[in-house]
Design brief:
heterodimer; A: mainly alpha; MetI-like fold; 2 domains; about 0% strand; B: alpha/beta; 6-stranded mixed beta sheet; 4-stranded antiparallel beta sheet; 10 strands; globular
């Protein structure tokens, strides 16, 4: 008769009853994913508890560092407010929309340019030096220029988001398409494939894992770009809301905005990640057994 | 009329340090339906020779004719199997075999007929139960069988193989040799196999071409008339010994 904590999830038959249920729980806690979720929940509760105790004990002013209950109230108000100007979800939607438009345009341009540079030497020689040079520059510093050229409103947000999405995608697409190994190129040559066939049927799929990795970075960058544009000269969106809240010292409100923004970032990133896991099912080349 | 003619082919690589001869003037012929093996030490240029025949590398001089036509690039009617299977990881076993139908010239191709042949080949190479699996689910031997099925899809007259079983362990390798011999007898292709494994060459080939160390040239051609399937170990060992002697003499001559 085995000890219950030695039972793993796979061992448990599909029976009901208290023994099976206890075994399942013990099994799940031992299984990797369950342990991770448990750790996250426990640590979250601990952080909130420490935060609450500290704000009460240190008598810090609420407008400097609000306690969890103030933030929770601000969050609740922000989510449920019927006034669109103070509804955080509505404002977040505006920002996210601008980020996504920027991501789609900047990202598509990045992928196309990266693919062209990987496929055609003249394009590579022309484009890549500039890309690598500008890549390390903090592109957010271009924001004042962007406002001069594109005015105010949604467009400068989209442009900045697009700019920040462009670079990870052009670099990763270029690198991904060059990942193709010699053997596969020889294979396609021996099959008498045309250059176009080689690009579409070999290089592009080979690049997908890196392209998606770039997309995961780009999506968060694009959101950041939209928010920063709003910080600087925004008329709406969650970044603008944060500035407005700051001007009236509503720090709890700012925390609420940050929470909402963080959730949006995680959600967008997860969507891309799920897409990647579904489309790029073959994993890295190291899967192949010899 | 031989299906393959190699006439005085050489290959010289130009590097920063000067010219490196990889292949001295080499000539050979392959008759339809025959199996030749090219054996030699590492670096002797046998892979270079195969790549030249496959149209992947241009010879520095000399000419290669396949079916009477001079080879200037990868020719049609030739199937190539490389040392590594080079399967596309996002395609299934069947999909990888069909790759031969989906790219390249000439076009158009009878897709449905080829699909049927692909299924037959997958069955022939013993991967019927894995037809919808992906390469990472296959062992090394299975991947190579998949690659061989791909090379056979368009029913080429000639099959070129560059150490196809080099990455496999000795046991699997022996099994693959037996399997390849039976496939060859069934399909009747002309095969040129490059290998550094003498026993493999003796088991499979009608003629073994022995190459010297770099720069490679042909130092011996040995016809093998043993009946198939080749089970007479002693007879095969005799032939192997002859080959080893050739290689040994060449090595000693080179050391002098």
């Amino acid at each position: 008769m085995r000890n219950l904590d030695q039972v793993t999830y796979e061992d448990v038959p599909q029976a009901s009853g208290p023994v099976a249920r206890r075994a399942t729980l013990a099994g799940m806690a031992g299984n990797g994913r369950g342990a991770t979720i448990l750790t996250t929940v426990v640590s979250l509760v601990a952080v909130v508890a420490i935060w609450w105790i500290w704000t009460v004990r240190s008598h810090v002013q609420s407008f400097v560092f609000p306690g969890p209950s103030a933030v929770a109230r601000a969050l609740w108000y922000g989510i449920s407010s019927p006034v669109s100007a103070s509804n955080l979800l509505y404002q977040l939607g505006i920002t996210t929309l601008a980020a996504i438009i920027g991501l789609l345009v900047g990202g598509a341009l990045g992928i196309i340019l990266g693919a062209l540079a990987a496929q055609f030497k003249p394009a590579e020689r022309l484009v890549m030096p500039y890309v690598f040079a500008i890549q390390t520059m903090p592109k957010i510093a271009l924001a004042p220029l962007i406002f001069t050229w594109f005015g105010f409103g949604a467009v400068p947000k989209e442009v900045l988001a697009g700019l920040l999405a462009f670079f990870p995608l052009v670099v990763n697409t270029y690198a991904g398409m060059n990942l193709v190994d010699r053997d596969s190129i020889d294979l396609f040559a021996s099959l008498r494939a045309t250059r176009l066939e080689e690009m579409v049927k070999l290089r592009l799929p080979t690049a997908l894992p890196l392209v998606f990795a770039g997309l995961e970075i780009a999506v968060v960058n694009a959101l950041l770009g939209a928010v920063v544009a709003e910080f600087m000269a925004g008329q709406d969106g969650i970044g603008t809301t944060m500035i407005k809240l700051q001007s009236v010292s509503n720090t709890a409100g700012i925390f609420a905005c940050l929470i909402v923004l963080a959730v949006a970032g995680v959600l967008l990133h997860s969507i891309v990640r799920v897409l990647r896991l579904k489309l790029v099912f073959w994993g890295p080349a190291s899967h192949a057994r010899e | 009329m031989p299906v393959l003619e190699v006439v005085d082919v050489t290959k010289v690589y130009k590097t920063a340090k000067g010219s490196v001869p990889a292949l001295e003037p080499t000539s050979l012929t392959l008759a339809p339906g025959r199996f030749i093996a090219i054996v030699g030490p590492s670096g002797c240029g046998k892979t270079t020779l195969l790549n030249i025949v496959a149209g992947l590398v241009k010879p520095s001089s000399g000419v290669v004719r396949l079916g009477g036509q001079v080879v200037t690039g990868p020719p049609a009617d030739v199937g190539v199997v490389f040392q590594r299977p080079a399967l596309l990881p996002w395609k299934t076993v069947l999909g990888n075999v069909m790759l031969a139908a989906e790219v390249g010239r000439p076009r158009p191709r009878a897709k449905s007929a080829l699909k049927a042949r692909a299924a037959e080949l997958v069955d022939l190479v013993g991967l019927r139960d894995f037809a919808t699996r992906h390469p990472h689910e296959l062992s090394g031997g299975m991947q190579q069988r998949n690659a061989i099925a791909r090379a056979l899809l368009l029913n080429p007259e000639t099959l070129l193989m560059d150490e196809p079983f080099g990455a496999l362990d000795a046991l699997t390798r022996e099994q693959m040799n037996e399997w390849l011999a039976s496939i060859w007898q069934r399909e009747g292709k002309a095969v040129a196999l490059v290998t550094h494994n003498i026993d493999e060459a003796v088991y499979l080939a009608d003629q073994v071409i022995v190459m010297s160390a770099r720069p490679g040239r042909i130092i011996d051609r040995i016809d093998i008339t043993l009946p198939r399937p080749r089970t007479n170990g002693a007879a095969m060992a005799e032939v192997s010994a002859v080959i080893r002697k050739s290689l040994g003499q060449d090595r000693r001559a080179g050391d002098g």
